[in-house]
Each structure stands twice: as structure tokens, then as C-alpha cells.
Amino acid sequence: MESNPGNSPLIGIVGVCASGKTTLIRRLTELGFRCRHIAQEHSYVPSMWFKITHPDYLVYLQVDYPTTISRKQLDWTQAEYDEQIYRLRDAYAHANLVIDTSRLSLDATVDRITVQLRAAGIEPTPPALEKV
Question: What is the pTM of this model?
């Protein structure tokens, strides 16, 4: 999922399943940021996040195991969760921002991220006006 193609910086979003990637990307996109979901948690190639996306800014979403289960009623084990954390190790090491979404609302998460993006000089691009 990517928005606002062009010269605006690309924000990559990574995290384990149920960390909030899809919902966050939808909201950031609505605000005018260009984002891409990076499904690194499913890849055995540690630097796949970079090889396929080349984000200008990388956001790593953390979430604890119990929260993943309550958010999505996931039928997975602690070992499977730990494996996704392991697969994300390179993205974690290179992230511009790491944020734990376990106890944050979507609005609080968006607020924290947009403050950091703006501090890094990344501003949203207003949506194009529809031609009438």
C-alpha cells in the first residue's frame, strides 16, 4: 500500500502481525504521507525491507505477544511471534523510529509518529484536488 507517488519521502512501516501496520498506513495516507507496508516479518532475508522498498524513513512497530492475540484473535504461538521478531532484527536495527503500539490508541500512535516525521523534515503532501 503506497500513497502520494512522486517526490515526497517514502515511509516504510514494519512490525509483527497485529502491530498495527495496515491501520496506521491507512491513517498516515489519509493525512498525506506516502507510506508502504513492508511484510518483512514473513521473509527469511534479513534486509528484504530495504531491498524491495528503499524507504526514506523506517518506522518499526513493536507490540507484545498477548496484544497481538487480543487484536486479531491470532492462533499463533509465542515461538511464532518470536520468529517474526527475529526476522525483523535488521529492520529494527535500521529503524528511524521504534514505537510500541501495545498500549497506545491509533490516535496516540499517529500523533507520535507524525511529530517525529515532521522533526525529520517530512511533511504530508496535501491530497490532489479533484477536477470538476
Answer: 0.88
